[in-house]
Amino acid sequence: MVGWEYPPFKAGGLATHCYGLTRSLADKNSKVYFFMPRTKQRPSSDKKNLKIIEVGEIDIFPYDRPDSKEIEGGFYEAVYKYNDLVTAKVKNSIKKEGKFDVIHCHDWLTMKAGIQIKEETGTPLVLTIHSTEYDRSGWLYPNQWFIDIEQEGMEKADRIIAVSHFTKRVIVDKYGINPDKISVVHNAVYPIPENQKQDIVLFLGRLTIQKGAEFFLNAAGKVLDYEPGTRFVVGGSGDMMPQLINQAVNMGISDRVIFTGRMTEDEVKHIYGISSVYVMPSVSEPFGITALEAISAGTPTIASKTAGFSEAFKNCLRVDFWDVDEMANKIISLLRYDPLHRTLAEEGKREINLFTWDRVADKTMQVYNEVT
Amino acid sequence: MTSVCMYFEVHQPMRLNRFSVFNIGCDNDPYNHYFDEKLNKEIFEKVARKCYIPTNNLLLNLINQYDGKFRISYSLTGTFIEYCEKYLPEVIDSFKELFKTGAVDLIEETYFHSLSSLYDDLSEFEDQVKMHNQMIKRIFNYEPKVFRNTEAIFDNRIAGKVAEMGYKGIITEGTEKILNWRSPNHLYKPVNSDIKVLLRNYTLSDDVGFRFSAKGWKGYPLTADKYVDWMSQCQGDIVNLFMDYETFGEHQWTETGIFDFLSHLPGKVLNQKYLDFVTVSEAVERYNAIGEIDVPWAISWADEDRDVSTWLGNDMQLACFNELKNIGRKIKESGREDLLHTWRLLQTSDHLYYVSTKGLEDGDVHAYFSHYDGPYDGFINYMNILQDLKQKLK
Question: What is the ipTM of this complex?
Answer without folding.
Answer: 0.89
